[in-house]
Task: structure prediction
Amino acid sequence: MDLQTLIGTVYKSIISPLFPILIGLGFIGFFWGLAKYLFAMSGDAKDLGPAKQFMFWGVVTITVMISVWGLVQLLQGVFLGGVVPSAPPSIPKF
Result:
C-alpha cells in the first residue's frame, strides 16, 4: 500500500464523513442559540449573553469547517494530483 492509497482511504473513511456532521452541528448550534436569544428577549436580559455566545461559536464552527474542507481539497489536488472538486461536502440526511 503506497502513501497515496493510505491517504485516500483515511480521507474517504474518516475525514470525509466527519465534515458534513460538524457543519451540521454548527448550524444546529447557531439556530439553538438564535432560539435561546429570541426567547430571552422577552425575559431576563442576562440570558442574552450566553445565547449570543452560542450563536457566535456556531458561526465559527461553520466557517472553520468549510475553510478546512477547502484547504483539504486544495492540498489533495496539489499534492496527490487529483482534480479539485467544485462541489461542497454533502449535507447529512436523517
